[in-house]
């Protein structure tokens, strides 16, 4: 049987790199994108992983990537890249540039990327996964010190849902995933979950939901999250 195939977007470090490591160890054939391949030393050490250059904010680069990969079929497309936004996290204080950057990288760019590549998911069993956050749940009273980031992930969930509803049948299974509070540059001091544990759990969810259809908001341990 030929190996499963994955395209992981934003894999230079943190959870994205962890996903590539785990999938590679599990025998998947992985294509990983990073902004600067020459600096992705950890990724380069994983033999057989194909590395592509991509800044997710660059719409023309998304088109070029889709063109380069146009003959490939993926079992998993995972849009992981994301940013925290300005340190102050205040809507009142945010400049148009800060808001534009946050909502471009975390909301519109992931959907634009999915639009370019969704046709290459394997029919019936393909999974389209977006890295959301539990903070993106409007029912979650926590994390108001990260108000702008929270809003960006809620917006990503909403735009994902609109995108999915407009896709022709048969649609892929779509996941909005919460990785836990993970020990990465973004997760910072106090984070609880090891990258490897989060990534193993996230891949378990991908495998569990493959072929089921629908759009699900779940964490790395399989707990459903309220929208
Ligand atoms: P890191 O800050 O450690 O890594 C972020 C990754 O996103 C890097 O690979 C970075 O690339 C990439 N990236 C950022 N902007 C762009 C861009 N414009 N184009 C391409 N790649 C880009 O974060 P984490 O690994 O912790 O987070 C990964 C995802 O998980 C994010 O979407 C985040 O919001 C989400 N998340 C994380 C949580 C946590 O506790 N850590 C909790 C909930 C959600 P580069 O090296 O070039 O900057």
Word description of this protein:
- Strands 3-2-1-4-5-6-7 form a 7-stranded parallel β-sheet, with helices on both faces.
- It has one domain: Rossmann fold, CATH 3.40.50.
- The chain starts with a strand and ends in an 8-residue tail after the last strand.
- The chain is globular, with a radius of gyration of 16 Å.
- With 227 residues, the protein is of the alpha/beta class.
- 36% of the residues lie in helices and 15% in strands.
- Helix 1 (14-25) crosses helix 6 (195-209).
- Strand 5, helix 5 (147-165) and strand 6 (173-178) form a beta-alpha-beta unit.
- Residues 10, 12-16, 35, 54-57, 80-83, 105, 131, 133, 178-179, 181-182, 184-187, 191 line the site of NADPH dihydro-nicotinamide-adenine-dinucleotide phosphate.
Question: What is the gist of this entry?
Answer:
InterPro entries: NAD(P)-bd_dom_sf, SDR_enzymes, SDR_fam. By secondary structure, the chain is α/β, with parallel strands linked by helices.
Label the CATH architecture. Answer: 3-Layer(aba) Sandwich
Considering DSSP H and I runs of 4 or more, what fraction of the residues is helical?
Answer: 25-40%
- The proportion of residues in beta strands is 15-25%
At the fold tier of CATH, the topology name is Rossmann fold
Domains counted in the coordinates: how many?
A: 1
Give the beta-strand count: 7
Report, as a whole number of angstroms, the end-to-end distance.
38 Å
**Tally the helices: what do you get?**
6
The structural class is alpha/beta
Order of helices and strands: EHEHEHEHEHEHE
Residue stretches low in confidence (pLDDT < 50, at least 5 long) are: none
So, the CATH homologous superfamily? NAD(P)-binding Rossmann-like Domain
Side by side, the strands of the main sheet go 3-2-1-4-5-6-7
Q: Biggest sheet, open or closed, and with what strands and sense?
A: 7 strands, parallel
Radius of gyration, rounded? 16 Å
Bound molecule kinds, no repeats: NADPH dihydro-nicotinamide-adenine-dinucleotide phosphate
Mean pLDDT: 97
Name the CATH class.
Alpha Beta
Name the overall outline: globular
Pfam family, one: adh_short
Protein name: SDR family oxidoreductase
Organism: Phytopseudomonas seleniipraecipitans
InterPro entries: NAD(P)-bd_dom_sf (IPR036291), SDR_enzymes (IPR052184), SDR_fam (IPR002347)
